[in-house]
């Protein structure tokens, strides 16, 4: 979470601000997007509407209404599949209209850009800010890559791949390499070539799980970006499995969001883990690292899951 966010006075007097003022929801959502706890200095970040609805107090309907007003005013763009938002001028507001080539922040901006999850706005962001921040490497969204091909990164130097692009590389390697041994919660296997062909297709979680069973894939165990994050954060695997069980109840048959469709369910679940969406665990300092423990909500979920499994 950022410590602060800049909101310039001209927000209220500029042409975009005047347009947004016509809708109370639009003005509130715009201010929220500029200062969201999930935001970054680039203005290109993961922002589920569910979070927006809760944190603004607008509710789902009001949040969507405000977001549509922001999009119509040209303030931002939003991709439902990846749940990524791009506030087009936010980097200029937060960082500056332009930096000198020798400014060390340029390298930091490129690094932050390289680390972004795959989304449709990567190319447009690069085109908009390349001259201002002297960016050197342009990423290509997975949606723009033909199935079965390797990711293309426009760069004169060694490529930096996003997490989803690395998964595409693994799919190519799977043609010649044997499956990996079991990892995280007993899940194993990598994506098959057939899976790569349907990667960008939106579907419900039930359909995704059904296809995993058909192809012999395990839903999350073969997803290397998630496994890497678990290892880097030193998260207990049993906590991740608890979140996965709740995720399936939430988005699966009979769940509150069973009709939700995603193109990247693995990545969607990873976002839930990284953001500790269900608030199942907390971290406390221990030596040079941290120790994780379940919260009251996590303990309740664990007991409920154990009861269901024993039934």
Structure description:
This protein has helices spanning 15-20, 24-35, 49-56, 59-72, 90-94, 105-114, 122-133, 163-173, 193-197, 205-215, 224-233, 237-251, 265-274, 296-310, and strands spanning 44-46, 76-79, 84-87, 203-204, 261-262, 281-286, 289-294. The protein folds into two domains: 9-133, no CATH class; 178-311, no CATH class. The protein is mainly α and 311 residues long. Helix 12 packs across helix 14. A three-stranded antiparallel beta sheet has the order 1-3-2. A two-stranded antiparallel sheet has the order 4-5. Mean pLDDT is 81; it is low at 145-199. 46% of the residues lie in helices and 9% in strands.
Spatial arrangement of strands, main beta sheet? 1-3-2
- Mean pLDDT, rounded to whole units? 81
Q: Kindly estimate the percentage of residues that lie in beta strands according to DSSP.
A: 5-15%
Question: How far apart, in Å, are the first and last alpha carbons?
Answer: 41 Å
| Oligomeric composition of the shown chains | single chain
Tell me the series of helices and strands, N- to C-terminal.
Answer: HHEHHEEHHHHHEHHHEHEEH
* pLDDT < 50 runs, ≥5 residues: 145-199
From the alpha-carbon coordinates, what is the Rg to the nearest angstrom?
21 Å
Largest sheet: 3 strands, antiparallel
Structural class: mainly alpha
* Helix share, percent: 40-55%
